[in-house]
Amino acid sequence: MSEIAKRLERADKFLQKGKLPSALEELRAALQEDSSNDMVRQRAADICISLNLTDDAAGYLADLFDHMVAQGRSSEAISTYKKLTRLSPTTTARTFRYAQLLEKSNPREALEALNASFLAFLKNGERQQAMEALKRMIALDPSTTNYRREAELAESMGDYRASALAFVQLGRMEESAGNEGAEMYSRAFSLDPTNTTAALCHARCLMRASRAVEAVEVLRTQPLTTADFLETYANALLLANQAEEAEPITLQLYGTTSHGLAMIAEVLATYMRVGNMDRATEFAREVESKVRAKGEIKEFLAIVGEQVDKHPVSTDFLEYLAQLYNGANREHEYCDTLLKLFQLYFAQRNFAKAAECLDRASEADAYEPGHQERLEMLRGKIDANKYNAIANRLQGVGNNRVEEDDGEAEEPVEEAAEDKEPTVLEDLMLQAEIFLQYSMRSKAVERLERIHKLFPREEEKREKLAQLYAASGFVPKYADAQAPAASGSKSSTNEDAVDNFARVTEITRNISRQSSIKAVLFATVNDVGRHWNVSRCVAGLSSPGKAPSAAMEYCAPGVAKSDVMGLARLISSLQALAVKAGGPVAFPRAMAAPELESLRPILTTQNIESLMAVPLRDGHEQLGIVILEQCGIARSFKRVDEVVLSTIAEQIVLAVNNARLRSLVKSLAPTDEKSGLMRRSSYLDVLLSEVQRSLVQKSPVTLALLSFGSASAMIKEVGEVNVDAGMQEIGHMVTANIRQNDVAVRYGLTSIGLILSDTNDKSAFFVLDKLRKVTEGAKIPGRGEPVVLTAGIAELVMQPRFDAVDIVTEAINRVENALEIARHEGGNKAHALAPVIELSAVSA
Questions:
Q1: Rg of the chain's alpha carbons, rounded to an integer?
Q2: Are 694 and 703 in contact (CB under 8 A)?
């Protein structure tokens, strides 16, 4: 028998007799002879615990834990560690090893142990060990807190590359949570400028913050040539108005990415925005050959036309665009472009060119509205033969012929001022108005300066001229006064803003877009109240002599809301005064006005010094009123305010009537409760109602027909019940992601029809892109692959000379044909068909 066995035997006898110290001595002696015997160490630890020898027991258990870890006995090591921690605190290294043993079996407890190890390592200055613990924590819990710890610890250790990677990950997590992430990407780039991901993300954040020049400098340092990087770099250059540098990148992207054509549009838009029209024209000509080679001339025409609608352009560019449209047999767009050229040439007093444009436009479409007025504008300014040639082409213009000896040239403005004063003044005003319409303010100001020189103080007699002065920001100056209309009051500055008719156009457009009566009133009081800079603006709907049925109030900052009862009385009383006056009523000194005697307590309580009330009328029917209130100081409302507000009031009435009609039609139309889609039986009624509304408002309407697969094939594959259930889910997705004014109809078992109000066919493609992303991944129960969205698009021909039923019938046939074409093309396709009755070509 070995010596160790003898000692263990004696230790057992001592234990049986209760002699624990003697047994412990025998076990200690055995460990000295064989230190690897875990069984002896475990028995020694148990005896030490019984004898309250805590430190000795902890020492034995610590050695036992280390030995078990080395041998890979994980479960026994975990149990031993727990015994050890109950006796005394252990080392950070053992806690770290214990955490590693728990990572698979108990991640939550392992995370707590790793966190304790991390904090202890940091406290002891062992940063490398702390980083190891932190990386294991991130593997178990990839939270923003842990990534931030990693980023900051790596930065303190001088490992800037690792810190930048962590900050990039933090930025991505911030973006996933719906935040910006800009700070994280900025720190990552500053720590490691060679990190291309950090540079790209940082540049995108700078672009979103309108710091495009800085974004360009960041991206210039990167060697990347991927399509994603080049697209971002080109966008940054364009935002920084560096279109010439963006050109070669854009041309490189064209043909390699789906956004290539859109990038070309952005280059054109940038040149137009900065006024470099010569280069815009040259670039368009250069790109045209590449576009034709790829067979995308129709798409190119669409993006060029869209940019022309958004930006002021030169006559050279419009001439080029007209040539393009003519070559593509796009008569409608060709005629529109020629008419724009006519206006610009006329404003530039190049009457010969203007006549040539009118001649070409009348040749393309002699029935275009306004040709007679344009021809009349040229009377006496062009050669009589040319005048008569155009007149002969137009139907019903025989009485516009002029004699041969009328002459062809107009006298200079300065020489003709006395003999032809009304004509010269009106011509100059018309030219200024055209220039303002095309955002050419500098040229408009030149014409207004000539008017000011030749016809001083004429704006006091002609309200339209005063409006042109205000719209262009031109202030006539005289020796005896700073401006003829200056009142010296505090409101004069505000009235300059009031006369900003471009902003008034935005107000009316915003009001017309609202889909409910409440939204119409809300948009009215907020837009009008802010623009006129009044203390309060109230819009109420009521019949004379009755309490208001709806009312909305805007209050400027620091102005208290009106009392409800007082507000109702104010609306009723002022509406009665406006009805009696037959139009707007204004009270610069409301407190002293005898007409408002009965309202004086309300005026005093609400501190109202001045008032203007504009009635809302639909023919002879009184619908309500709009009230502007000035508190604290008196204010004189100008005549132009009444005119502009009356125009806005007309738009409010139209918007209210349309909202009521839409609400009525939708309430009467049956809706599928399961999908949220309107039923097919209401399709024509709703569409006819929308067409009639749009004809009045002169706004576009577009139909889109969405198909999510072949109904017959799907029924054979998974059954009609599954197909219907899947389409119900898709219906919910579609209805949740369209505007309130738009209507979605269950067109067929696997198809949905969309009626897109105030939307042209170009904008409809953006709606489809959104819906394609929303429905991406949607599946029919029982089918493995997701549905594929195919669409047809047709913009309705909103011409008053056509009957509404004919407009609807033609558009329905056209959108179904467009869907068939898209189906034959296959894949995720969308196809748009232009109207045949407008002689436009088919455009994809």
A1: 40
A2: no
For the chain, give the percent of residues with pLDDT over 70.
87
Give residues with Cβ within 8 angstroms of 98, minimum separation 6: 65, 77, 78, 81, 113
- What's the whole-number average pLDDT of the chain? 81
Compute CA 573 distance to the chain's CA centroid, rounded to the nearest angstrom: 42
What pLDDT is stored for residue 674 in this prediction? 64
The tokens for 474 are 């031109």
Helical packing angle, 421-437 and 441-454, nearest 10°: 160
Give the separation between CA 669 and CA 685, rounded to whole angstroms.
8
Residue 165: which pLDDT band, with cuts at 50, 70 and 90?
Answer: very high
Task: Give CA separation, 570 vs 522, 539, 549, 606, 688, in Å.
Answer: 18, 11, 14, 11, 39
Question: Is the distance from CB of 774 to CB of 734 less than 8 angstroms?
Answer: yes
Largest CA distance in the chain: 147
The percent of residues above 90 in pLDDT, for the chain, comes to: 9
Helix or strand run (H / E) with residue 794: strand 790-795
d(CA 43, CA 11): 10
Q: What whole-number distance in Å separates Cα of residue 833 and Cα of residue 822?
A: 10
Token couple for 593: 């006005």
Give the list of residues 6+ apart from residue 789 with CB closer than 8 angstroms, or none: 706, 707, 708, 768, 771, 772, 775, 828
The span from the CA of 166 to the CA of 161, in Å, is 9
DSSP string, 389-442: HHHHHSTT-GGG---GGG-S-PPPHHHHTTTTHHHHHHHHHHHHHHHHHTT-HH
Question: For residues 736 and 774, what is the distance between their CA atoms, to the nearest angstrom?
Answer: 10
On the question of pLDDT at 374 being above 50, the answer is yes
The backbone torsions φ and ψ at residue 790, rounded to the nearest 5 degrees and listed phi first, read: -120, 140
**826: its two tokens:** 């296959």
373 CB neighbour count, 10 Å cutoff: 8
Question: Comparing C-alpha atoms, which of 614, 695, 612, 689 is closest to residue 650?
Answer: 614
Give CA–CA dist 598/59, Å, rounded: 98
Closest CA to 333 of 840, 842, 763, 844: 840
Q: What values do phi and psi take at 543, rounded to 5?
A: -90, 145
Cβ 757 vs Cβ 513: under 8 Å: no
| pLDDT tens-digit map of 608-661 | 999 999 999 887 788 899 999 999 888 888 888 888 888 899 889 888 887 776
**pLDDT for 336 beyond 90:** no
- Contacting residues for 44 by C-beta, under 8 A, at least 6 apart: 24, 27, 28, 31, 56, 60
- CA angle (575, 581, 583) in 5-degree steps: 75
Instruction: Determine what percent of the chain falls in helix, strand and coil, rounding each to the nearest 5.
Output: 65, 10, 25
Strand order across the beta sheet in which 621-631 lies: 550-555, 536-541, 621-631, 608-618, 585-587
How many CB atoms sit inside 10 A of residue 109's CB?
Answer: 14
Q: Report d(CA 641, CA 588) in Å as an integer.
A: 13
Torsion angle, CA of 190/191/196/201, rounded to 10 degrees? -50
Q: Looking at residues 702-716, what average pLDDT do you find?
A: 89
d(CA 69, CA 838): 85
> What is the pLDDT, as a whole number, of residue 840?
37
